[in-house]
Design brief:
Length: 266
């Protein structure tokens, strides 16, 4: 039996694993799905939630568990499990990136997101992605400038959401209609600034933990092109594929759980 910690992606919450959790438990695994700060039932103010908040919440949960865990992240929160692994590598057995941002040392998530020009998420945020502002933040979000940005950036630039009209096509095009209806009620805004933070990862900590990537071949949010570029820049120990949208936990939960069970046995 293994313990899986499941982290949702942008806009979602622990609820997005509702089909996966019982299947993994039936296979004999312990599962814990988390609401990141400001998502689901976590009442943290979304405008003040930081990447450190995400990381520290995850670490607090892991430290209460006996032994090592398998840490799985979807989409944006690949950056969270990378930071967690750097901080407490002794508690992490494996890292699993499900169509998620696998970012190398010294780079930020947004540097890769901007390369994904076919992403329907990048094209349909509210407010719209400003290339000028985004480029300025990428260049300046470190050191004392990061502190000043954290303090003085106007509230309207601190979060974004996905335009509702694109939910189905961008995230759930192979899912049952009720999934989009669920999303219409439950998706939340996402804090922006964590996406500009340059990760600090070392070979002797993050680098020593086995990494597995699960590609989503029909992904229109984090497209296959950028998934494979990230794997090229940070090679993984194993790669699996699911012929699905960005949300195989809804459209193909059994296939996803079969892969997770195989990973757990290795």
């Amino acid at each position: 039996m293994k313990t899986f910690i499941l982290l949702h992606g942008s806009y979602h919450g622990a609820w997005n694993w509702h089909k996966v959790v019982p299947l993994l438990q039936k296979l004999g695994h312990q599962t814990i799905s988390l609401d990141m700060p400001g998502h689901g039932i976590d009442r943290t103010n979304i405008h003040s939630a930081t990447l450190d908040d995400y990381t520290n919440k995850t670490i607090d949960v892991i430290r209460r568990i006996e032994g090592k865990v398998i840490l799985l992240a979807h989409s944006r929160n690949g950056i969270v499990i990378s930071k967690v692994a750097e901080k407490i590598p002794e508690k992490i057995e494996k890292l699993i990136y499900l169509a998620s941002y696998l970012i190398p040392n010294g780079k930020s998530m947004m540097e890769y997101a901007l390369l994904d020009r076919k992403s329907l998420v990048i094209q349909n945020t509210v407010p719209k992605v400003s290339l000028k502002l985004t480029s300025l933040l990428i260049q300046n979000y470190s050191g004392y400038k990061k502190t000043l940005i954290d303090i003085f950036l106007p509230k309207k630039f601190r979060t974004h959401r996905l335009s509702q009209h694109i939910f189905h096509e961008a995230l759930y095009h192979d899912c049952a209609p009720e999934i989009t209806e669920l999303a219409n009620k439950l998706l939340t805004p996402e804090p922006n600034l964590g996406g500009f933070e340059k990760l600090r990862l070392t070979p002797e900590r993050f680098g020593k933990i086995p990494k597995i990537y699960i590609e989503c071949l029909q992904d229109k949010a984090v497209t296959l092109m950028i998934q494979r570029k990230m794997q090229k820049d940070t090679p993984c120990d194993r790669v699996f594929q699911i012929d699905s949208s960005h949300s195989p936990f809804f459209s193909k939960p059994k296939e996803l759980c079969d892969i997770l069970n195989e990973i757990a046995k290795e």
